[in-house]
Design brief:
The complex is a heterotetramer, with 2 copies of chain A (227 residues) and 2 copies of chain B (216 residues). With 227 residues, chain A is an alpha/beta fold. Chain A is built from 7 helices and 11 strands. In chain A, strands 1, 2, 3, 4, 8, 9, 10 and 11 form an 8-stranded mixed beta sheet that branches. The radius of gyration of chain A is 18 Å and the shape is globular. Chain B has a single domain, classed as Glutaconate Coenzyme A-transferase (3-Layer(aba) Sandwich). Chain B is globular and about 50 Å long. With 216 residues, chain B is α/β, with parallel strands linked by helices. Chain B has 4 helices and 13 strands. The chains are: A alpha/beta (227), B alpha/beta (216). Chains in contact: A-B, A-C, A-D, B-C, C-D. Chains A and B meet through helix 4, helix 5 and helix 6 of A and helix 2 and helix 3 of B.
């Protein structure tokens, strides 16, 4: 019997090595795997490359990982925010590398990794600073930039419900980067509100089929509220 | 001459959005447009984070942390709306399925180049979000901005001095002074605020404007 | 009020011009828009380019369209079947052009059209006859072939239920090519079993959001049985 | 020597599929493998037309025309299965998420080249389906085929004479005579049917085989 559930967030991330590329899903607080990020902070891996839409907010979660100088490089679309002070400070001090990627290109590069695409031509960013030094091509009547997939060692995702095969469903706009990141990593770890019996998820409604998920952690309601 | 305030600008943009349109409203000023879309007409708001059929802000106390817009503010979903993931959300943008994107701007050039993501200041931390995708993807890119900078310079320019978001992508500019179409043969003024003459608008703008499109 | 429903399959396809590229979804009988194909046959457009996984079976549907010599070219992955006699005969006589595309590349080229991708590198077919004459490139440790999107003028799809905004849900493996074809055409026409009131489709469960759908036709139960 | 029949070949392949594996079984002979997978173990069958967790054929009268496999035959869905669209189904294949693809073949070369889609006959109408995607995509490509053609020639060849499905993609070959691993240094025989000697297998096969992997 296959049961992908793992006892704790700590156990689910115990094997993350130094230098790993880790995708962290979520868009703002929605769909952000808060307890997995906290477990990653506790776990201690260093020199991480992080893929996220942002670069941390306030003092918790990804911001705390950055503040602890555990992130060598970050790929994101929108690092600068009113409360991204830990990133801002480290970036200005030259302590963290930034690869700025337009949000749709970020999503498509992640999707390409999961889908086995070697590279793709996108019209986004053609003629801008973010295309400087990149291969471009006119195809038909539009100009395109060649972009490469972003593969990860781990993806930390948050879903609403899972079953023991790792099938996941999300809630509202908390879906965002979660399904594509789940497909792009060698080891996808999902934190969920609830693990339901096999068959409780409608097969028409499963957004992330279990093939993309290695480990599932149920986060206790008390912990969820504390975060 | 009375300049439009932000709400009046939003209302002016909203007037041009027809029923049935699929629309993305950028963060900031463009978000206000939602408040002026005609009630009772079906206009479909898209959000980069995976929403189609986005509704207004929820009443205080009914916010759902799992239901936010691209600016990460609480929103609602209209009856008939749908959720999807980020790659699908941007497939809609890049694949030219959106009828309109309404975006803020630092500068727009006579060729329709858009600069709205980076001031070019050497110490600025850059952040682009979905702006470049919207600029190249939407069938019609509408820009909303004040006509002049705080120091009185025109934001409509011969060539953008700020880094580009997209080249030759803007279709129409809405400012607090005028509505201007960007066409291959130049900038056509569509309308102006009350009390503003074409000559005065031309003087303030600095780049050549055409008046043939102004309704009699 | 936006209501995308159209009175009949005939009305929904009245404007298909000669020379149009028409995607027809379905995989075997599952998800095949039978009544729309019949309406296309009745409608009379000629010199069509058809995109489908196959090249018609038996004497009905796509096979009938081919038999009526209305198809100039077909893009598909698996034309040769036990009962593809109309295609086989016309093809051997030089009466129809065939572009054979591996099934995954067919799906990805359709998806790329819907997603605004200008071209993509896929490992599929590298080193085979189906990559002859195509641009190739080694990226990392794999070899890839450059493939281009397939855009269509019309997509004929079949869904289970729709609402007046054109949101679609499918049934089981009848989903197949339907959602991606719906995204790749200028005018997507969906035949459905039922049109439900707005709000009856769970927003978490909508597979094809209405943005991709122009026209919806409810097919009466009596017609569905006859097909 | 007793050659394996089709069912015995399928049972032999099934023995090598571990619990938890994600597997695509090609049309034809490989489809039989499903019947010999251990009951009570979770093995996940994938189908190109958008199914994960595919179950056995339904009983007569319970077929659902909306639930078919890649060969368009009626199937069922296991409890815990899921449906998705064609692009997602092939993303799973091309993105190296499948542990095993089991494919039929006309020929396999010593380098692991696979030919299974086209006989090369000039009047044949070509059809490829998902074979090329599976050949490059699955982590392990297992080939199931008879060892010899009807005229007695080896289907394991120095170089494929039929058009390729994929280059250097086959990991293991299951025939009615033997199981053979394709490795960078050549073909390693893993096991043989009872009563068949290595020398006889070598004689029938025509290309060099290695016997170091044969269990004592």
């Amino acid at each position: 019997m296959i049961d992908k559930s793992v006892a704790s967030a700590e156990a689910a991330l115990a094997d993350v090595p130094d230098g790993a590329t880790v995708m962290i899903a979520g868009f703002g607080g929605a769909g952000q795997p808060v307890q997995l990020i906290e477990a990653l902070i506790a776990q201690g891996a260093r020199e991480l490359t992080i893929v996220n839409n942002n670069a941390g907010n306030g003092d918790a979660g990804l911001a705390a990982l950055i503040a602890a100088k555990r992130v060598r490089k970050i790929l994101c679309s929108f690092p600068r925010q009113a409360d991204s002070w830990h990133f801002d400070k480290l970036y200005r001090a030259g302590g963290i590398e930034l690869e700025l990627v337009p949000q749709g290109t970020l999503a498509e590069r992640i999707r390409a990794a999961g889908a086995g695409i070697g590279a793709f031509f996108t019209p986004t960013a053609y003629g801008t600073k973010l295309a400087e030094g990149k291969e471009t091509r006119r195809i038909g009547e539009r100009d395109y930039v060649l972009e490469y997939p972003i593969h990860a060692d781990y993806a930390l995702v948050k879903a609403d419900r899972a079953d023991r095969w790792g099938n996941l469903v999300y809630r509202k706009s908390a879906r965002n980067f979660n399904p594509i990141m789940a497909s792009a990593a060698k080891c996808t770890v999902a934190q969920v509100r609830e693990i339901v019996p096999l068959g409780a998820l409608d097969p028409e409604v499963v957004v992330t089929p279990g093939i993309f998920v290695k480990r599932v952690v149920k986060i206790a309601a008390s912990l969820r509220k504390a975060a | 001459m009375k300049k439009l305030d932000r709400k009046e600008m939003a209302a002016r943009v909203a007037r041009d959005i027809p029923e049935g349109a699929y629309v993305n409203l950028g963060i900031g000023l463009p978000t206000l447009v939602a408040d002026y879309l005609p009630k009772g007409k079906d206009i479909f708001l898209h959000s980069e984070n995976g929403i189609l059929g986005m509704g207004p802000k929820p009443p205080e106390g009914e916010q759902d942390p799992d239901l936010v817009n691209a600016g990460k503010e609480p929103v609602t979903l209209l009856t008939g709306g749908a959720f999807f993931h980020h790659a699908d959300a941007f497939a809609m943008i890049r694949g030219r399925h959106l009828d309109f994107a309404v975006l803020g701007a630092f500068q727009v050039s006579v060729a329709g180049d858009l600069a709205n993501w980076h001031t070019g200041a050497p110490d600025a931390i850059p952040a682009v979000g979905g702006a470049m995708d919207l600029a190249v993807g939407a069938k019609n890119v509408l820009v909303m901005m004040e006509h002049l900078t705080k120091s009185g310079e025109s934001k409509i320019v011969e060539r953008c001095t700020y880094p580009l978001t997209g080249a030759r992508c803007v279709n129409r500019i809405y400012t607090d002074l005028a509505v201007i179409d960007v066409k291959p043969d130049g900038l056509h003024v569509v309308d102006m605020v009350e009390g503003l003459s074409f000559d005065e608008l031309q003087r303030l703008t600095g780049v050549a404007l055409k008046k043939t499109a102004i309704a009699a």
